[in-house]
Amino acid sequence: MRAARVAALAAALATMPTAALAHPPPLGIPGFFGGLLHPAFVPAHLLAICAVGLWIGQQMPAWGRAAPATFILALLAGLGVIALGRVPPFASEALLLVAMAVGLLVAWARSLPESAGCVFAALTGLAVGFDSPPEVVSLREANLMLLGTGFGGSLLMVATVEAGSRLARLWHGVAVRVLGSWIAAIAVLVFAVQLTR
Amino acid sequence: MLRLVLGVGLAALIASPALAHTGDLAGGFASGFLHPLFGPDHVAAMVAVGLWGAFLGPPAIYSLPVVFPLVMALGGALGILGVPLPGVEAGVAASAIALGLMVALGARPQLWIAAVLVGLFAIFHGHAHGAELPAGADAAAYSAGFVIATGLLHIAGIAFGLLARWRAGRLAVRAAGGAIMLAGVVFLSRAV
Asked: Mean per-residue pLDDT for A123-142?
């Protein structure tokens, strides 16, 4: 009788899905390189980093390098929190909200103080870190993936800042503004889908 | 019985996890990208937005294609969330009539009036795309696909609309607006 209860309990546990918190390694690539690709394969991360990167690039040369540096430091801090075993909630939602707001700012194309860029860069860096708990079994693998995510996120930010500053010089900055509106639009739609699931 | 317990326990270990991201990335993007392109009513209205923007010149030439996707996304969110919007198909058809008419007449209203008109119709287009998001599709890829396809249709309209710099080209652009308006009448007759 006792064994039957244990069997029933085990069967019940078997049917329970695991929580949808962590992301699987992108393309099934584990370790450092999986982490490196991670920010480019999670839509909320990609949208927020591209929005903030384009915005910083658009504001160059009036803005210095403080905002991208803030992003990198905040990203490392966020990943550090994950490495300590804490997973703060709502990071993905925060990233989509940042993508919406900053996408609109890019489309608006007005000069703003650099401190505003630092605030959004810090929010994005922290949230990308918080939303990157590795879905792997070993601690070593997890740490390698976190390290890769730190590098990947930083590289993506630097690349989009550079692309934004170059695109902002083309066609009176129209291309960047259109990209900003597209990013904000996609973020609104993905956020709506997240609300329904 | 012990074997049974062990068997069930092993089954528990190999249970598939609920991953955070589901759906086929490439399929989702292709589905979203093709959605506006395979709807002639969407194509006509999107091209008309570009034509009108080009006809009006700066700043409308870039403001209208920036306003449209932003407001369209709000309509899309309503569709995804299941908020009903009456007369979506009729609204999409009416957008082809109204925007085609503006181009055909060579109307030059103030920028904010043009933006409000374009934004109003964008809600119907967005709702239609959002409500038809296929179950299981990668939501981000689908959204990116239909936003980018919409933007490319605007660019196609702008490219053709740039002919308005020349006298003969202006006639061709206005004629295209007239053709879009007539197509809109056909779409509306089918929708109601």
From this structure: 88
Q: Does B51 touch chain A (CB under 8 A)?
A: no
Which chain A residue has the Cα nearest residue B154? A178
Residue A27 has a pLDDT of 66
CB–CB of A178 and B62 under 8 A?
yes
DSSP structure class, residue A18: P
Residue A171 has pLDDT above 90, yes or no: no
Query: For A56-92, what is each residue's pLDDT tens digit?
Result: 999 999 998 999 999 999 999 999 999 888 888 899 9
ipTM above 0.90, yes or no: no
Go through B180-189 and write b for each residue having 16 or more CB atoms within 10 A of its CB, e for each that does not.
bbebbeebbe
Distance from the Cα of B189 to chain A's closest Cα (Å) equals: 30
A196/A73 Cα distance (integer angstroms): 33
CB contact under 8 A, B18 and A18: yes
Cβ atoms of residues B53 and B118 within 8 Å:
no
Token output for B55: 């006809």
Residues 111-130 (B) with a CB less than 8 A from some CB of A: 130
> How many beta-carbon pairs below 8 A join chains A and B?
119
Cβ of residue B143 closer than 8 Å to a chain A Cβ = yes
Q: How far is A18 from chain B (nearest CA, A)?
A: 5
Per residue in B77-125, pLDDT (tens digit) is 999 999 999 999 999 999 999 999 999 999 999 999 999 999 999 999 9
Place of tokens 């450092």: A32
Q: Look at residue A186 and tell me whether its pLDDT is greater than 60.
A: yes
Residue B119 corresponds to which amino acid? G
Touching check for B76 and chain A: CB below 8 Å?
Answer: yes
CA–CA–CA angle A24, A26, A31 (5° rounding): 80
**Residues sharing a CB contact under 8 Å with residue A34, sequence separation 6 or more, in sequence order:** A25, A26, A27, A134, A145, A148
> Which pLDDT band, with edges at 50, 70 and 90, does A19 fall under?
very low
Which amino acid is residue B148, in one-letter code?
I
Total Cβ atoms within 10 A of residue A195: 11
